[in-house]
Every structure is written in structure tokens, then in C-alpha cells.
């Protein structure tokens, strides 16, 4: 072997080593929230933090606004390894682990801090393990998303005012149960059709987080907003298990830290928007009421009993008592 050949091979080996050392990994992330939403801005912040911390070694390419499919379709793509990460309300993961649907049941979750305690509880770790072991979905963070409230064409000062109210809900059992429990009449209608249904009094009210009420302009055709605080929602971010395991420990730490920064930014924006939107509603003539919620909670007890029968004695109380 000539000296020239040896030098050439040395150069090639050095180039391959350098390529390996400076290899870049790009994570493909899809989510449903639209461009310019708090969740979008949170994910942009996370992406920037990740690139900064890793020196460009680990990056994210984000696809907002459901570009890659519905929330359920994107989770399935993560499960199959077609994309690396996506997010969905943790209760929405019930398509994989049915008992997670309990988190969408009214008044089981008090606030976001309580929800985080549930996620970190023995039960939370069990269902997260099932998602990872059986579906390759590894939850690695949870972001605040909002609290569902109730708008109507008449004042709701107490649970008695819910009686006979034709309440639009999604076609979701837990939210239909909320309507039934309060003696309202659940009326599942497609989200895109709700404004017209409210405008024409086909229904008397609807329930959604405040940012959604603003985005869909429901406040233009509803003059009352009751702070019923019936469902607290998050966005649980999951990564494909193989994608996670392919990362070094250092890369995993960078990713977790970046997502924490993004979640803090999203929560800050959601809280700021909530105050801004409430002020807008009031300026538009909406009356905001604060009914006593204890009777609402009491009305849900038969539905908790049904969950206990399905998933085990004291199932719902264990979630309610999570510390």
C-alpha cells in the first residue's frame, strides 16, 4: 500500500468520523392547533430552545394546524413511527387505554396542577406504561390547554338554570354525561355548525374553553357565559418509543428541557389570552356568571359510580384524591 493510498484512506476515515460526530437529528412533530395559537408559539419556543441547547445537533420540524391529519391520526402515526411526536388531551388517549377517558369526565380534575399530579400518580404511571409498552407512545410532557366553560342564551346562576337547556356538546360520552347530569339536553353538533345553531336558537348553549369561544365568535350569538370549569384540558406530548431510545441521554435531556420551556410559554399566552378574551366578551355585552359548582359536582356522582363499576372500586376517588 503506497503512502498516497494510506493518506487518502486517512482523509476518508477522518471525514466519516467528523460526519458521525456532527450528525444531526431532526424530529418530525405534528399537532392540531393552528398557526399563531398559544400552543403553536409554545412549540416554536421549544424548537428554538432545542436547537440552541444542542448546538443544532437535535432539531424539530413542526407541522401545525392538522397538516398531517386529525389528532387521532397523528397519534397513530407516532405509534407506527411515521412521525416522531404529537400531542392530544390526555383523556383523548382513551382510543388506546379506555380508562383515560375518565379525565374528560366533569369535575374529576380540579385544575392543571391537579392534572399533573394525576399524571405523576401510580395510576398515571401505569397508563403511561401501557401506552409505551403496547403502542410505542411515550408521554414526555403535558402542557396547559384550557378549561371548558358554558355559554347560553339565558343566565346560568345555578344548576337549576341548566334544566331543559339545549346544550351543544361534541359527540363525546363524557361531555354528553355532563349535560345530562345537569338536566340539560345534550345536542351533539359538528363544531363548524355550532355558530349557526346558536344564532338560530336550534340550541340554547354550548361548552368550550374560552379561547375557542373567542376564535369561533360564539360570544356574538350568546349573551351569557357561566364559569362552570367542568373539564380541565391539557396537551400531552408523546414521542415514538424507538425515536426516544435512539436519542442519547444528553439529547433526551435537551428535548425535555426544551419542551418545558415551550409549555411555560404556551401557558403564559393562554392565561393572558383568557383575560383578554373575557374583557372582549364583556365589551360585547356578555354577562359572566359564577354559579356555585358544588351541586354540579354532586350531580356527577352517578357517572363516577359507573366508572368505578367499570374500572374498579374507588377508581374515580383515587383520581380526585391524587396528590
From TrEMBL:
Instruction: Tell me which CDD domains the record gives.
Output: PBP2_TRAP_Siap
**Main location group:** other
Give the matching Pfam families.
DctP
> Does this entry carry the keyword Repressor?
no
Give the signal peptide as a residue range, or say none if absent. Answer: 1-23
- Name where it's found: Cell envelope
Q: Which Gene3D superfamilies match?
A: Bacterial extracellular solute-binding protein, family 7
Q: Which UniProt keywords apply?
A: Signal, Transport
Cellular component, GO annotation? outer membrane-bounded periplasmic space
Which GO terms fall under biological process for this protein?
Answer: transmembrane transport
User: To which protein family does this belong?
Assistant: Belongs to the bacterial solute-binding protein 7 family.
Q: What is this protein's record name?
A: DctP family TRAP transporter solute-binding subunit
Q: What is the lineage of its organism?
A: Bacteria, Pseudomonadati, Pseudomonadota, Gammaproteobacteria, Vibrionales
Amino acid at each position: 500500500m503506497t503512502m498516497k493510498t494510506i493518506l487518502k484512506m486517512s482523509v476518508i476515515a477522518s471525514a466519516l468520523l467528523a460526519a458521525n460526530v456532527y450528525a444531526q437529528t431532526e424530529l418530525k412533530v405534528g399537532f392540531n392547533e393552528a398557526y399563531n395559537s398559544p400552543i403553536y408559539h409554545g412549540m416554536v419556543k421549544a424548537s428554538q430552545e432545542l436547537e440552541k441547547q444542542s448546538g443544532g445537533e437535535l432539531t424539530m420540524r413542526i407541522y401545525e394546524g392538522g397538516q398531517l391529519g386529525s389528532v387521532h391520526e397523528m397519534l397513530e402515526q407516532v405509534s407506527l413511527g411515521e412521525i416522531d411526536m404529537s400531542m392530544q388531551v390526555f383523556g383523548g388517549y382513551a382510543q388506546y387505554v379506555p380508562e383515560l377517558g375518565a379525565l374528560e369526565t366533569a369535575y374529576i380534575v380540579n385544575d392543571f396542577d391537579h392534572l399533573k399530579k394525576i399524571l405523576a400518580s401510580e395510576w398515571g404511571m401505569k397508563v403511561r406504561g401501557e401506552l409505551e409498552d403496547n403502542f410505542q407512545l411515550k408521554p414526555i410532557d403535558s402542557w396547559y390547554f384550557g378549561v371548558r366553560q358554558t355559554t347560553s342564551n339565558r343566565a346560568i346562576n345555578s344548576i337549576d338554570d341548566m334544566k331543559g337547556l339545549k346544550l351543544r356538546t361534541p359527540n363525546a360520552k363524557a361531555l354528553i354525561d355532563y349535560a345530562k347530569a345537569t338536566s340539560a339536553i345534550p345536542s351533539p353538533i359538528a363544531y363548524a355548525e355550532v355558530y349557526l345553531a346558536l344564532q338560530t336558537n336550534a340550541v340554547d348553549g354550548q361548552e368550550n374553553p374560552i379561547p375557542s369561544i373567542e376564535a369561533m365568535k360564539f360570544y356574538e350569538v350568546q349573551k351569557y357565559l357561566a364559569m362552570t370549569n367542568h373539564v380541565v384540558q391539557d396537551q400531552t406530548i408523546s414521542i415514538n418509543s424507538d425515536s426516544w431510545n435512539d436519542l442519547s441521554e444528553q439529547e433526551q435531556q435537551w428535548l425535555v428541557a426544551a419542551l418545558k420551556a415551550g409549555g411555560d410559554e404556551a401557558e403564559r399566552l393562554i392565561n393572558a389570552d383568557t383575560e383578554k378574551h373575557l374583557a372582549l366578551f364583556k365589551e360585547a355585552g356578555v354577562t359572566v356568571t359564577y354559579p356555585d359548582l358544588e351541586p354540579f359536582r354532586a350531580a356527577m356522582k352517578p357517572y363516577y359510580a359507573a366508572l368505578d363499576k367499570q374500572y374498579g372500586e374507588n377508581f374515580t376517588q383515587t383520581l380526585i384524591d391524587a396528590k
